[in-house]
Each structure stands twice: as C-alpha cells, then as structure tokens.
Amino acid sequence: MIRRWCYALLFGLCAQAASAAAPSWDDWLERFVSPEGRVIDTANQRVSHSEGQGYGMLLAEARRDRASFERLWRWTDRNLAVRDDALFAWQWKPAGDGGAVGDRNNATDGDLLIAWALLRGAERWRQPAWRARARAILADVRGKLIRPSPYGPLLLPGMVGFVQDQTVVVNLSYWLFPAFGEFDRADPAPVWRELAQSGQKLLVAARFGRWQLPPDWVAVAPDGKLSLIPRLGTRHGYNAVRIPLYLAWARVDNPALYAPFLAFWRDFDQGSVQPATTDLRDDTTDPYNAPPGVLSLNATVRRLRQDAAAPAPPDAADTDYYPATLALLAALAEREVAR
Questions:
Q1: Taking a C-beta distance cutoff of 8 angstroms, is the pair 69, 29 a contact?
Q2: Is 109 a catalytic residue?
Q3: Residue 249 to residues 177, 179, 244, 277: CA-CA distances in angstroms?
Q4: In Å, how far from its chain's centre is CA 132?
Q5: Which of 166, 193, 169 is nearest to 179 (CA)?
Q6: Choosing from 41, 61, 109, 318, which is the catalytic residue?
Q7: Catalytic (active site) residue 253
Q8: N or C: which end of the chain has fewer CB within 10 A?
Q9: Is residue 53, in this structure, part of any structural domain at all?
C-alpha cells in the first residue's frame, strides 16, 4: 500500500511539473482558436486542418469544457465534412471569399483524432449522436485506409497519393496507440488490436541513421523492405516527435521501442543546443533548440519511462500552435497515465 501511494504521489508531482510547462487552456483557446471554433496553425499561413480540430476537441473534453468542444466540433462538421464519406478534408485555407477547403483529401490522423474526441465527448456528456459519428469515421478508416503488409495492417495517411506499384507510404506518427483500445470497444473489429501490433513492429524495423530513429515518412515494399522517401523528406522530424508520447500514453512497456528516442535526447542533455529533428541520411541535427513544447513532450516521456536524468520542462512559452499543442497533450497524457 505504501509503495502504491508513493508511486501515485511521484506521478502526481510529475504531472504538476508538466502542466506548469504547458500553456493554460484559456491561453491556448485565446491564441489559436477563432470565435467560430477554427484551430489556427499560426506557423503555416494560418490554415486549419483536421488534426488541429481533433486535438482541440480532445483537449476540450479533457478539461470538461463542453462549450469549447461544441464550438470546435460545429466548425469541423460544417467546414471539413465535405466529402462523400465520413472522413474529413484535411486542410482549410482562410484566404479568398471567407475561406474554403484547400484539399479534399483526408488526413487519417486527423480523422482518428476527431473520432477519439467524439467518443470521449459522447461518454462524458451522454451524446449518442457523437458516438454514432465516431463509429462512422472508424468504419470508413477500416474500410478504405487499411492495406496488408508483412508487419500486419498498414494505415494509409490519406485516400489519395500513398500507394504506388504496391509500395505503401506510411507515417508512423499516425498510429494513435492510446486510442486503439477505445476504438475497439466502440467499433469491435480485429484491426484496431492488429494496428497496435503492426505499429510496434514497424517501429522496430524503421530505424535509420546514427540514433536508429524512425522517419516522418517511410515506404513499405510488398516484401517488407523499408526505405526513406527523399521527395517527402528524410528527417526524423516534427511528425515523428509525437511517436514516443503516443507509446507512453498507451502504456506500452517495451524498452526497445523507446531506446532510439532516449539515446537521441540524452546525447544533447549537456549541450548548448537541444535539437528536435535530425536528417537520417547524414545525422545532421537542427542548429537551434527544439521548441519548448517539444522539449516538454520529451521530458514527459522520460519521466514516464522513469529516466533518472529526465530534465525539468522548460519555462518558456511556445508562440505557435503545434508545439504549444504538444505541451498540452504531454500534460494530458501524464495525468492519464498517473491515474
């Protein structure tokens, strides 16, 4: 009993530390959400995308902020649900006559984030219509965005543009590990459990460069061979930085999966620069510090992995949507793991 109480206290203190490094929810809403409920990517021409809407809804539910949740969902439904299926156009541009969808192709991580948020919102506020929409999204992901491979099911990043001559392009940060169990309960199908396994198998195999890190984008050949894709970039970049957080949030306890990320972070603990990304062809790294939100995410993962050398979260605030959002997600993940 004493050991369990100490363990809970330790995680409680860690969660408080992570929360202190993240922006406040009110601050995030004020800086990145329009009055209509559009999440604004401040570093990318102020566009909006399904990923941002999903993250915003997920954070609103976690804070029991129903008004913000409904505002975000209303904008998403009205502006991105323009396809002939249950998936969402991935990008909306503010330029032009009031703004419009910039690309009707979907982004599967955005679809899954929205579905996850709707499932959680439906349970918290007893809204069966939201649950029904989530199940429709999940059914279309299952039916349209899964391809077989030697590793198990692959998750297409979008409907269009990711399969050529039986080679499939995937983005391993789209594997939303902490949500797969909830998806399986809402939409019982073997594929959700199988995705949890295929994602881990791919992470073992998709190792490149000095630190053996996964890239943002990787090509999976029919025989299982993995390769970098120069036209999409060869970095362990700002997509892939999310992967260890998703693993830790899902309570995946496989030290080998975390080892490359920990090795990369530890190599710069005492340096003057703590980079976020590296080119996996030549091992060059960013010549500048990672944004505070990324460093906060890294620190969270290290605490959850009981890394004795885990640094404290940075005190500086992020100025842009994505790293500020990562900081809030890291704080949320740490609170949920501590329960």
A1: no
A2: yes
A3: 8, 9, 8, 21
A4: 23
A5: 193
A6: 109
A7: no
A8: N
A9: yes
Query: In angstroms, rounded to a whole number, what is the distance separating the alpha carbons of residues 169 and 333?
Result: 28
Domain assignment of residue 193, yes or no: no
Mean pLDDT of 18-30: 78
- Segment 304-329, tens digit of pLDDT: 999 988 888 788 788 999 999 999 99
Q: In this predicted model, which residue has the larger pLDDT, 64 or 20?
A: 64
Which residues, other chains included, contact 338 with Cβ-Cβ below 8 Å and sequence gap of 6+?
8, 11, 12, 14, 15
Q: Out of 26, 30, 41, 51, which one is annotated catalytic?
A: 51
Residue 57 lies in a domain: yes
- C-alpha 293/C-alpha 309 separation (Å) is 19
- Whole domain around residue 130: which residue ranges? 33-144
Q: What is the DSSP letter of 173?
A: G
Is 59 within the bounds of a domain? yes
Separation CA 88–CA 92 (nearest Å): 11
Find, among 308, 128, 279, the residue nearest to 211 by Cα: 279
